[in-house]
Amino acid sequence: xxxxxxxxxxxxxxxxxxxxxxxxxxxxxxxxxxxxxxxxxxxxxxxxxxxxxxxxxxxxxxxxxxxxxxxxxxxxxxxxxxxxxxxxxxxxxxxxxxxxxxxxxxxxxxxxxxxxxxxxxxxxxxxxxxxxxxxxxxxxxxxxxxxxxxxxxxxxxxxxxxxxxxxxxxxxxxxxxxxxxxxxxxxxxxxxxxxxxxxxxxxxxxxxxxxxxxxxxxxxxxxxxx
Length: 226
Known about the structure:
Number of helices: 10
CATH topology: Glycerol uptake facilitator protein
Largest sheet: none
Helix content: over 70%
Shape: globular
Low-confidence stretches: 218-226
CATH superfamily: Glycerol uptake facilitator protein
């Protein structure tokens, strides 16, 4: 996801410091992230649930779907995967005379519209909340779970359409950390926002889903435990 999503951002002009690629560039980048998660969901969904996102793993942990040990295992794997994706992208960028950047997130001067820090935090919390609520909703019902990959991918595309000009769209701490490490400088100093805010948004989504939508699944869990 990092290689194809952030790679598309780099190829189409990037979103750090402005959207040179314009409307079609934003749509292209959004689709790249969305289609990447569709591919991942159907490729490894049956193996691991295809979280590829520490914020999603946190939400699943809060709902009781994985253990704390599993959560840390997921996060380590997600960060390693993101670093590998950024590493591959760096090889492509370094071999080109025209390409630059790694698709890092940012606010202030690194935002396409100059969004401030508090605005970036609000945006990332909200977008992650919507994204994770969709994931929990579509995967918790057997009637809709088979459509999960497509629905999740389209929702990720949706949040990117508005989020790219604002922050570059994180909603995924691992996706933000790896490009920031490779980019360094201001992107790295700001990455804490794109780690903290998605976790907050995901936790809120998990608690809201448990409170209002998870009565049946909680009963099923209790029956299974008995």
